[in-house]
Amino acid sequence: MANKAEEKDEKIWNKISLKKKKMPEKVKKKEEELVIKRKLIEYWGIEIEYTDEDVVYFIPLKPEYKVVDEYWVVEPFAKVKIASIPQLGGQLAYFVEEVQLTPQEKKVVEKLIDILSVEMKPPATIEEDVKNYVLKEARRLLDKYKKAFRGLTEESWDKIIYYVERDLLGYGPINVMMLDPMLEDISCNGVEKSIYVWHRKYESIPSNVMFLSHDYLREFIVKLAHVAGKHVSTAFPVVDARLPGGHRLAATYGEEISPRGSTFTIRKFREKPFSIIELIESGTLDPWTAAYLWLMLEHRMTVIVIGGTAAGKTTLLNALLNFIKPSYKLVTIEETPEINIEHENWVQLVSRESYGLGETKTGEIDLYELVRISLRYRPDYIIVGEIRGREAFVLFQAMATGHGGLSTFHADSLENVVRRLMSSPMNVSEPYIPLMNIVVHIERTPLPGGGFARRVKTVWEIKDFGEYIEIIKWNPLTDKYERVNDSYLLTLLSLRTGTPIHKLKEEIEDREKIIKWMLENKIRDVSDVSKIITKFYMFPEEVKKMAGAIPVYPTKTTPTVGTKTTVKPKKIKVVAAPTKVEYTEDEIQKRILELIYQEEVPLDYKTIAKRLNIDPLGIWSHIRELNKKKLIKNTVVYSGGAPILGFELTEEGRRLIEKELKGGKE
Q1: Cα separations (Å) of 520 from 275, 441, 514, 515?
Q2: Do the beta carbons of residue 457 and residue 474 sit within 8 Å?
Q3: What would you report as the CA-atom Rg of the chain, rounded to the nearest whole angstrom?
Q4: 46-50 and 39-43 as β-strands: parallel, antiparallel, unpaired?
Q5: What was the pLDDT predicted at 36?
Q6: DSSP 210-246
Q7: What is the DSSP string of 562-591?
Q8: What is the pLDDT of residue 313?
């Protein structure tokens, strides 16, 4: 049986190999013609000669080029070098350098991809990770046909697997660019043109990668569209889609609408969005502005983020959404899903293009329809990725009925925002303009010390049509933020909530201290920041104390057995502080169970923390564990007449404690 299986494998191998060895005479003649039909182009002062079989070219890094920076992207297979090119007047360029394959290794990669296309079966379940599955299958087939792959070292196998993963699961010639975290944008302008990249440090620079074949570039565009779950063809030559990882693809197919050849631009997005702390660290805004926006968002004020292309509008919007109360219901509406937030009560809606031909709009669901239907969801906040058309009218109608609203808007000034809103097709009338409570203007701007960065240039409050109050202004000479005028919205909040204005100002200062505390303690990950903000909404006093926003005074302690107590006539009793004892997690959980058992009534977390002298925030991990073990259960207790969350023993928890106590007595 083993011999038969080996013979069958050998036949498959030979069949695939013979396809390339036994070529018809016509193919041989065609190859001979290709040798004669060579093309020659000059680029960066280099003569590039190629045939129709060459589809992608990597311009080599010459010795005379000065390398100013280099770093690994996929160590040890792919590295990036930033070099200055004398022929271009010292312009910087982005060089991709990948490990080179020998002719034998190239053949193995080609044959392995052919075998995978023939023999690989689909995964058993849709939940299985595609990348890991393909790599597992590739290794299995390598082992299966190892007799045919002779003379290859372990280093060769690693290179082969890298290229199989790069071409089958990755993005082929631009895979290194897609994996490079320093790139924001990848843009191909056609064939025989360098692919341009937007580097976080060096901005827009050409790369050493170029497509040479119109046919290959068209196939590449089709692959990108299919990966994004979209269709592109001569009939539908434009595609706007979202790639895996949240990257945004805009592409054209063929030469009809882009004469130089198919084109594409990929705007890269981080898998984890920037948190508000990371934006403050980079100087995009200051802690006071963030604290001010935090208070406003808690009270359902509407915020519109404006700016030009690639100004950072969506990034800032994403970060601000972390400030919204966890209990609020959010509905996001976008053409291409870019918003990514740490929020449970969130409905995500995406528009759909028409699948009809010509002027028919069969099946189209636009932003207007989505904003209209979102009102049926009873949202606390409606977030529109970007206002462009008639959906603005419905959004402003929703804000007039008490819904909170957030959005981004392409404009370079507040006056232009108002003009566009009041023009067709948005048609927002003058009385509705004040429903935009706050407008935040963000731009990519030159810095006083050189270079460029994204900065919140101005924050306005809209008091009435034509009456705009500038609250925050960025100073381009000092790269600092200045408070220009008093807030009108604080007066409005004071009347709405019955809270004095000075208390609201103190609240902003307290939140500013919490933000600064997170900065000092390097709490910058969006998940960690979100947890702190959630804790603040549940237990504001504890978080303020933790961040130093409220002074912590020593609390009274109950004397333990054996503690000496000195009593003086007509004076306060002074008790020696009990010695601090370190307990393990199991011991703390046991003490919680014993306390609830001894009290014989449900207790809230504050009482438990106070009695056991444990940090109120730190006690929650132990309560969650006891809940998981089904030793305690949630209930309602009353404090000052108000219902709050409490905990009592389950039957299982009671039996466990009674058993422990009996064992102790015995």
Answers
A1: 15, 27, 10, 9
A2: yes
A3: 32
A4: antiparallel
A5: 47
A6: EE--HHHHHHHHHHHHHHTT----SSS-EEEEE-TTS
A7: T--EE--TTS--EEPPPPP----HHHHHHH
A8: 92
> What single-letter DSSP state applies at residue 108?
H
Which token pair is 210? 């170029």
Q: Return the H-helix or E-strand segment holding 463.
A: strand 452-464
Task: Provide DSSP, 275-339.
Answer: PHHHHHHTTSS-HHHHHHHHHHHHTT--EEEEESTTSSHHHHHHHHGGGS-TTS-EEEEESS---
Tell me the three state secondary structure of residue 377. Answer: helix
d(CA 260, CA 395): 41
Cα separation, 280 vs 184, whole angstroms: 19
Find tokens 């959004």 and name the residue.
395
Which of 518, 550, 546 is closest to 290 using CA atoms?
Answer: 518
pLDDT at 450: 82
Q: What is the pLDDT of residue 572?
A: 36
The reply to whether omega before 86 is within 30° of 0 (cis) is no
Domains and CATH numbers, the chain: 31-267 (3.30.450.380), 284-497 (3.40.50.300), 584-665 (1.10.10.10)
Q: Which residue has the tokens 């895979």?
A: 175
How far is residue 626's CA from residue 608's CA, in Å, rounded to a whole number? 14
The pLDDT of residue 1 is: 52
Query: What is residue 458's predicted lDDT score, i.e. its pLDDT?
Result: 95
What pairing do the DSSP bridges indicate for beta strands 238-242 and 248-252? antiparallel
HSE (CB half, 13 Å, CA atoms) of 17?
A: 11
The pLDDT assigned to 585 comes to: 80
Contacts of 399 (CB under 8 A, 6+ apart): 302, 382, 405, 432, 435
How does DSSP assign 480-546, residue by residue?
A: EEEE-S--HHHHHHHHHH---HHHHHHHHHHHHHHHHHHHHTT--SHHHHHHHHHHHHH-HHHHHHH
Distance CA 82, CA 263 (A): 24
Splitting the chain (666 residues) into consecutive groups of 10 residues, what average pLDDT does each group show?
55 52 51 58 81 86 92 93 91 94 87 79 70 74 71 83 86 94 93 92 92 92 90 89 87 89 90 90 95 94 91 92 91 86 88 64 79 88 87 85 88 91 88 91 90 92 92 94 93 90 93 94 90 91 83 48 42 41 78 86 83 75 82 77 77 85 59
Residue type, 475: N
8 A C-beta contact, residue 408 and residue 431: no
